Recover the amino acids of this structure.
């Protein structure tokens, strides 16, 4: 009886966590819906008097709004991609591994299994990266998300504002969402500003629209500042072909730690996220190359092209081996084990 109560309580807690995890998304959706009403109705249809100005404002606004909403939708509902079956331990291997009590033998078993897989990264101690929750050998750049309770390919971070884990399958959409969010806030702020000044000077009547216009400018500027910082940080990561996790914890390869291990050069780094077809870079359609299980590495490129060996890598000013500082991102949290 007591065990049944514990299971019911645990199930209820999980259900509550799932419901509460959608609260940040609901907040964003409500703010966006209000901004749509305030801009389209209170500003364009009520406050703006020139018909030509109304049409231009509305056309440009809806063009930006469509891409903003589209990329947000893709960031939320594109499921994180998990490692395929060949990285999971077979039933026999799992039984052998769990029944073995000697850690050194377990370690050697994983080494033997990893020889059959394209894995080149290791733990800080040099061991094969193994997830004891999912019972699989982690592919390069794969990490276990404690919120999603799964291993995610090329995991970047878990973002509460989209209630999703950002990784190989949706990192492009997340970057586009940040870019269109910045553009959305900037467009609203620049077009609203002149009417803000008119209300401030008393050149327009003190009606209900005044509150919406003034508050719209304040909200747009507030979100613009925070989003520009986050978007700039992720642009920095893309330029160096790093994930958020790799920026805080240097990846370890079979040859040792290498903070520029996946840095292929600026253009190729961008192509690793957006693909080779530049026509798709601004459209939220999947175009990232590969399957997320293996990635080209700098050391391999250098062996194929000796000229790259003499190229100066981009250096970071901070030590990449430092731990996660509290509040490192106001809009994202890292939950990896």
């Amino acid at each position: 009886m007591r065990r049944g109560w514990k299971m019911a309580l645990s199930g209820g807690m999980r259900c509550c966590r799932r419901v509460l995890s959608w609260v940040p998304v609901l907040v964003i959706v409500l703010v966006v819906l209000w901004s749509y009403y305030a801009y389209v109705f209170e500003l364009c249809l009520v406050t703006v008097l020139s018909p030509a100005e109304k049409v231009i404002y509305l056309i440009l606004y809806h063009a930006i709004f469509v891409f903003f909403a589209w990329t947000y939708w893709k960031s939320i509902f594109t499921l994180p991609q998990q490692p395929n079956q060949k990285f999971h331990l077979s039933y026999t291997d799992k039984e052998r591994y769990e029944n073995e009590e000697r850690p050194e033998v377990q370690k050697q078993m994983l080494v033997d299994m990893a020889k059959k897989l394209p894995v080149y990264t290791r733990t800080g101690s040099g061991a094969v990266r193994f997830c004891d929750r999912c019972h699989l050998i982690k592919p390069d750049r794969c990490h276990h998300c404690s919120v999603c309770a799964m291993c995610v390919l090329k995991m970047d971070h878990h973002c509460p504002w989209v209630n999703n884990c950002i990784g190989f399958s949706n990192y492009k959409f997340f970057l586009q969402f940040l870019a269109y969010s910045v553009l959305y806030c900037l467009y609203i702020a620049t077009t609203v500003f002149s009417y803000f000044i008119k209300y401030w000077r008393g050149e327009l009547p003190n009606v209900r629209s005044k509150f919406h216009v003034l508050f719209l400018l304040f909200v747009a500027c507030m979100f613009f500042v925070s989003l520009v910082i986050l978007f700039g940080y992720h642009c920095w990561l893309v330029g160096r072909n790093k994930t958020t996790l790799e920026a805080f914890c240097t990846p370890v390869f079979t040859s040792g730690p290498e903070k520029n291990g996946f840095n292929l050069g600026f253009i190729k780094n961008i192509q690793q996220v957006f693909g080779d077809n530049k026509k798709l870079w601004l459209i939220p359609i999947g175009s990232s190359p590969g399957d997320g299980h293996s990635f080209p590495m700098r050391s391999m490129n250098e062996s194929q092209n000796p000229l790259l060996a003499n190229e100066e890598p981009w250096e970071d000013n901070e030590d990449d081996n430092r731990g996660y500082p509290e509040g490192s991102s106001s809009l994202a949290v890292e939950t990896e084990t």
